[in-house]
């Protein structure tokens, strides 16, 4: 790619919106932020619906091109804007296949099949909208821990990251799921703790997390009477 990219990222405030923010900083990309949140009405405006008929966040605009779904956005950024010194995607064919396998595993087995099921049916999350189901939440937590054994096995092989010594966007996806699991009280395997500590020390992680914080609402000042 030549020239300065024209990137705008819509969405803040969730474990999925943080992924593209973080990837932007890993790749050293300048971008604009539209700090809209889910279930606020902001995704249902005429302007946003024209860009993303699914009315979900995050959404990336790259010039006249739009792409949604956090994992897809991160993969697009990784493929389009990686450079020799900032590469979030492997180039060797079999390494690429292994990276792809990790990405699909994380977003299906750890995220949507486990953690998001918990979010949808927890009383203190989206349960009042989709139905409170404590047994479903408990089973989803068990399934997450079951599937995490594959991550545990990989990290026990003296790997700094999922792909060995190479930090990739698969680590972005995994870290957000591990952070999410801890927040939900699911717990993570012991071997993932030092991995997570290493990741949390990355400057791009810290900057991406800060960029993902919703703007504080403006509280009107009450006039004295």
Architecture overview:
With 225 residues, the chain is α+β, with helices and mostly antiparallel strands. The chain folds into two domains: 7-81, Glutaredoxin (3-Layer(aba) Sandwich), CATH 3.40.30.10; 93-206, Glutathione S-transferase Yfyf (Class Pi), Chain A, domain 2 (Up-down Bundle), CATH 1.20.1050.10. 51% of the residues lie in helices and 7% in strands. The protein contains nine helices and four strands; from the N terminus they run βαβαββααααααα. It has helices at residues 18-26, 46-51, 70-81, 93-121, 127-130, 134-155, 169-183, 192-200, 203-211; strands at 7-10, 32-34, 59-62, 65-68. A hairpin with a 2-residue loop joins β3 (59-62) and β4. The model is unreliable at 216-225 (pLDDT under 50).
Name the descriptors.
225 residues; alpha+beta; Glutaredoxin; Glutathione S-transferase Yfyf (Class Pi), Chain A, domain 2; 2 domains; four-stranded mixed β-sheet; 4 strands; 51% helix; disordered C terminus
